[in-house]
Amino acid sequence: MPSALSLTLEAMLLTISTTHQPATDLGFLLHKNPSRIQTEELPFGKAHVFYSDAEPGLCTTALLVEIDPVALVRGRGPAGEGRPITSTTAAAS
């Protein structure tokens, strides 16, 4: 029997690479330590920053964003201020 509650997460992956010497300066520019994974909670999911390559000749950083579609639609966060966007709320603005 299927579960009444199912959680679906969408994901987006963005990678940035450089071969400029020393390539590990990319970590300095992004203010992130290449030797560890950073995770940040967002109103609509989580963001993870990590380095798949971190060597002097090549440095690649990746941003993985997990998006919770339900939280995104509910409008949690600064733009929606915790209220769903409906025709009634749009008319009141």
Q: Specify the number of helices.
A: 3
* Relative strand content: 35-45%
The sequence of SSEs as H and E is: EHEEEHH
- Helix percent reads 10-25%
Question: What is the CATH homologous superfamily assignment?
Answer: Hen1, N-terminal domain
Assembly state here? Answer: single chain
CATH architecture: 2-Layer Sandwich
Order of strands, main sheet, comes to 1-4-3-2
Structural classification: alpha+beta
Radius of gyration: 19 Å
For the record, what CATH class applies?
A: Alpha Beta
User: Unreliable runs, pLDDT <50, ≥5 residues?
Assistant: none
Coarse morphology: elongated
CATH topology: c-terminal autoproteolytic domain of nucleoporin nup98
Report the count of strand segments.
4
Largest sheet: 4 strands, antiparallel
Total number of domains = 1
Describe the protein's architecture and organization.
The structure is a single chain. With 93 residues, this protein is of the alpha+beta class. It has a single domain (10-92), classed as c-terminal autoproteolytic domain of nucleoporin nup98, CATH 3.30.1610.20. It is 18% helix and 38% strand. It contains three helices and four strands; from the N terminus they run βαβββαα. It has a four-stranded antiparallel sheet with strand order 1-4-3-2.
Topology:
Blueprint: E1 10-18, H1 25-29, E2 38-42, E3 45-55, E4 58-67, H2 69-74, H3 87-92
Antiparallel strand pairs: 1-4, 2-3, 3-4
Give a short summary of the structure.
The protein is of the alpha+beta class.
